[in-house]
Design brief:
With 425 residues, the protein is of the alpha/beta class. It is elongated. Helix 14 (388-398) links the parallel strand 13 and strand 14 (403-405). It has two domains: 11-201, 3-Layer(aba) Sandwich (Rossmann fold); 227-424, NAD(P)-binding Rossmann-like Domain (Rossmann fold), CATH 3.40.50.720. The protein has helices at residues 22-31, 43-50, 62-66, 102-111, 131-142, 165-168, 181-191, 203-233, 238-246, 270-273, 281-301, 330-339, 369-373, 388-398; strands spanning 11-16, 36-39, 72-73, 82-87, 120-123, 152-155, 174-177, 198-201, 310-314, 344-348, 355-359, 362-365, 378-381, 403-405, 417-419. A six-stranded parallel sheet has the order 3-2-1-4-5-6. The chain has a five-stranded mixed sheet with strand order 10-9-13-14-15, with helices on both faces. 44% of the residues are buried. Helix 8 (203-233) runs parallel beside helix 11 and helix 11 crosses helix 12.
Length: 425
């Protein structure tokens, strides 16, 4: 069924930035009947998408992309042929606690000469408070267009979890932040064929919705991680304590501990802390989550030497069953292990290619999980990928004296630190 938004344009929408946010959105919009195209500066992404191949893992889209109905251009002039423009480029932090607007600025400079009367521009990536207002000011200074009159502008945040985009784009409420009625109506029309419902607000409130969602999860996991640290310090079992604390208790839920990172959770607190000089619980949560790699190494050393031992690290991505390594804490874990001068560190992640990039100047072999664990003295479960439970059971059979560091409780031993032989009991 064709649900085109404007018959006077070749495309209903152009997705600017066809990465992990933009590509699933474009393909899902295409499936609803919209005419969709893309714009991306990365030639590797363009080549993959235009050949009908997903450039990263995201369940539900392989068949859609294989149709080759969604094509991506490297020419910014492509936006002229679309009624709406959705910008999904990244918004990282600088080295200091400061939002980096360079990618958004580069997009605006690229598409600015091609913006025209009647366009709807939607920001979609996580942004700091005030970013949409900055975009409005940029457009009105650098073009002859005026938001709310000749051009529409909205902030329409994505709130999907990686690996669940196909389902959640169709199940989550779409927040729409605007400063005028025309922009609000046009943005609602764009997303109403996909989202089950929409809620309207202003720019900053919409920006804060996304930040609050992510930061609340980050703080929640930081509490769980601190509980894990406290429990181990007292020689008690965090998994047993958590199970009892959560059992039939109606007023709180303690999360599982783990390496808490990723391109959203690890940085979004900074987009609010940028505007405050005072210590607060958000900075404390950041410190706690960042400390977990140190905790895992130092508390293992209290049980067994790491120096001159063979160490296996299972998992390198930041999240279970994805191929996304952005802002993963595993490289940090490896750096702390290297300080202990083990005889060898073997890294394994079956979601990645034959080599793993530890840094821009350093690559290491990606071992199979079985080979990485063979005769290893210590095995760190750094990511809770499916299948690692079987790997640990094999370690228990072949190398029962090996120490396992399993903050995700993949082995179901209900301990963070234990010898593999426990899995045989």
């Amino acid at each position: 069924m064709n649900v085109s938004l404007s018959d006077s344009n070749e495309f209903d929408v152009c997705i600017v930035g066809t990465g992990r946010v933009g590509l699933p959105l474009g393909l899902s919009m295409l499936e609803t009947g919209l005419r969709v195209t893309g714009l991306d500066v990365d030639p590797a992404i363009r080549a993959s998408v235009n050949q009908g191949i997903m450039p990263f893992a995201e369940p539900g889209y392989d068949e859609l992309i294989a149709r080759r109905s969604f094509q991506v251009s490297g020419d910014p002039a492509v936006i002229q042929s679309a009624a709406s423009i959705v910008i999904t480029v990244g918004t990282p932090l600088h080295t200091h606690i400061e939002t980096d607007l360079d990618q958004i600025r580069r997009v605006l400079e690229s598409i600015g000469p091609h913006l025209r009367t009647g366009h709807l521009v939607c920001l979609r990536s996580t942004v700091a408070p005030g970013t949409t207002q900055f975009v409005e000011k940029w457009i009105e200074r650098n073009t002859a267009l005026k938001v709310g009159d000749s051009l529409s502008l909205a902030f329409c945040p994505e709130r999907i979890a990686e690996g669940k985009a196909y389902e959640e784009l169709r199940s989550l409420t779409q927040i729409i932040g605007t400063h005028d009625q025309t922009s609000a109506e046009r943005a609602e029309r764009l997303f109403s064929g996909l989202a089950p419902d929409v809620m309207h607000t202003d720019y900053v409130s919409a920006e804060l919705v996304k930040l609050f969602n992510n930061i609340a999860r980050y703080v929640h996991f930081a509490v769980a991680n601190q509980f894990a640290l406290v429990a181990d310090t007292f020689g008690t079992n965090i998994y047993e304590i958590r199970r009892m604390a959560n059992h039939n208790y109606p007023r709180s839920h303690i999360a599982m501990p783990g390496l808490t990172a990723g391109t959203c959770l690890r940085k979004d607190f900074g987009m609010i802390n940028e505007w405050s000089p005072y210590p607060d619980m958000l900075l404390a949560a950041w410190k706690m989550n960042e400390f977990i790699p140190t905790f895992l190494v130092t508390h293992l050393k209290q049980r067994v030497p790491v120096h001159d031992r063979k160490v296996a690290v299972l998992g390198y991505t930041f999240k279970m069953d994805t191929d996304d390594t952005r802002d993963s804490l595993v490289p940090k874990l490896i750096r702390y292990l290297e300080r202990e001068m083990p005889s060898e560190i073997r890294v394994s992640d079956h979601h990645l290619s034959a080599e793993i990039e530890l840094s821009p100047t350093r690559r290491v072999e990606n071992w199979t999980a079985a080979d990485a664990c063979r005769d290893a003295h210590c095995v760190f479960v750094a990511t809770n990928h499916s299948g690692y439970d079987d790997v640990l059971n094999q370690v228990a059979l072949e190398n029962p004296d090996a120490w396992i560091v399993d903050i995700w409780n993949v082995g179901q031993a209900d301990k963070i630190f234990y010898q593999a032989k426990m899995l045989r009991d």
